[in-house]
Amino acid sequence: MYGRKVKLRFFFVLLVLLTLVLSVFVILKSLEENVVYFQSPTEIKALSEIEKKKIRIGGMVKIKSISMKTKEIKFIITDFENEINVIYSGVVPNLFTEGKGVVAEGYLKDKNFFLATKILAKHDENYMPPEVKAALEEK
Amino acid sequence: MSSLIGLYSLFFGFSFSFLIVLNSVKNFRDTKNFDNRIIFLTFLQFFFVIVSFLGLIASFISSDFSNETVFNHSHTTKPLFYKISGTWGNHEGSLLLWLFVLTFFLLLFLLRSKNQPKRYRILTLLFQQIIIIGFFIFIIKTSNPFNYIFPVPSEGLGLNPILQDPALAIHPPILYLGYVGSSIIFSSTLSATALNYISKEWAIHIKQWVLVSWIFLTLGILLGSIWAYYELGWGGFWFWDPVENVSLMPWLALTTLFHCILVLEKRLILTSWVIILSISTFTLSMCGTFLVRSGILNSVHTFANDPERGLFILIFLFCLIFLSLFIFFFFHKIKRNDSDSFFWLSKESSILINNWFMMYFLSVVLIGTVYPIFLDVLSSKKISVGPPFYNKLIIPFLIPFLLAMAIGPKLKWIKSNLKNKFNLILLLVISLLISILITNNLDDGFLINTILITSSFYLFFITLRDLISRKFKNLSQNIAHFGFSLLILSILFNNIFSTEIITNLKIGESFQSKNFKINFEKVERKDKQNFKSIIGKFNIENSNGTIDQLNPELRIYNQPNIVTSEADIKTNIFTDKFITMNLVQNQEYFNIRYQIKPLMIWIWISVLLISFGGLISLFKKKYEN
Predict the structure, then answer these.
(1) What is the domain count for chain A?
(2) Could you tell me the residue range of the domain that residue A84 belongs to?
(3) CA nearest B585 in A: which residue?
(4) pLDDT tens digits for B370-402?
(5) Chain B hits for A57, Cβ within 8 Å
(6) Would residue B479 count as lying in a domain?
(7) Helix and strand counts by DSSP (H, E) for chain B
């Protein structure tokens, strides 16, 4: 009876450990696949090759760069050093304004064109996304 | 004037902490009976904190701009309701609210624990006082809501308009009742561990407190979610955003804790689990406050804030964790019957299995939330973790989770056999058939959706059948689980069958799609108390001949100068029709988003049902005791 109990315990502990290791592995694995990296226009200029992964680009919306049609919106994101053209069809947040900070998520077409799938809204007119702030300060 | 009263009350309240601690320590050592003076002192402390809080509210109402907090977050043209809710719509005020709830729960605890042992009551009080003192110091040192500014400005900066909303006005107090309510569970668990008082009586007593926090936390999350749905204009209700995650994590821990306590109450096993979960629930609540307030989180919800405060909370948090781990390791004696008689097919093992799943969900959310922060600190890479990560890791595991939730309550304690196997299998087959009928026309994700819908229907039918037939035996659990199945079903159908159109239209233009035609007829302008409003008149012709009038609104607030868009939503019990419009600077086009979202209202109703289940359980227990 005692032996059976010890065996059971052993299996139990083994099962717990296995589950733990497995779940940590799975979580880390899918983290790797699903994270979105943030880059500034300058960093994109410095890229050696264009990746197919989804990324985020942040900076300022260049003044007088927005143009709008039924299907899409075009504008330019700048970090005051380099620029990138963005083509976007989707919801525009209210605080999306020329001369203010913006973060766009999507795919690079080439080093000058970015196809955005999402523009992120910010709640506060004084708030600047930390990445944008960092990107603008880096220069 | 009211600011001054508020400030002095805050100091008075703080000084009472020392009196209370002094008296309690004396009482703990010397006398046999609980000294009722302590309750009186606690009441006085609570009273001064209330006065302080009312002082801040009064400053907001009278627009006293010599107070820095009022100056930063209020404006004379703001409606009265939002002047009041502005009190806790900012960092300083919301911390005062934390303190208010902390002292309130302590008082309530002392009043409601009269038949508990004296030493246990006093030790709980002492632990709670440690937290209270920490928050007093935090408020006074880093975020005093009563800072004076001179010269006195004539006008305030105004409250962020997006917060000027009824749901968000009551969201923080409700959420905090849940968050901070976990503090008393934390203190009580530590004291019970230290005194070796973890018993069935203790489980019955602490269960009520767990339920109270859990109900408020559930409702708080619901309110925040409803707000995000109609105010942020994205038409979603959950974005896996860090700020949302930090409220979900304590919820998961608290739900797990509640189920563990049920087991503890009946079987006196899983004591270590209960202790660890109590500690982590409160720690996660504190972490939530820390992450939201420190400015570390990169989130769409974060508002500008200050790193020094984050550091303080972090240090405080570490002290608390250290203290609790110390108590756990040195005082917790495992009772020998812990490992006795644990059979696989029993109620407690099914609860335990689901607890594991819940812990897994919790770790997924935790890793997804903090990983970007660590990566940023370690390698200064900026990343974000979005919905695909969570969907991929959580959704598959919902299937066994739902099944265990359906079967588990059918089992008995200790050792059990499944009765009525035929019925159970029959229900499973019915669920499967219905699911296939529904998912039949789906293009992608057929398999996973069918299995998911099957398992949620299974839970749905089983709980529904019990609700109808079982005559109020364990009604609370039944309703809560039924609500959960309804929630998952509504979310699934909502995700699968939503349609969305995003387009840019000029006034007078229309958009033709397969099932409907959107006509943008005109806009009207109106002046309101503190904003100008532009109301769009939309006319939507459905393919079945009916016409919907929808009027989304744009609000241009004067102070601060912000544009917000108010969605117009037509709700009925089957679908929500949701439209928002946005204006882009210097453009003739309006950005229009139109969504048809099935079963939206059932998401809210099911969450209400879940918390209603908790409420019934709370009153049932009180009645029985």
Answers:
(1) 2
(2) 37-138
(3) A97
(4) 888 888 778 777 788 888 899 888 999 999 999
(5) none
(6) no
(7) 17, 11
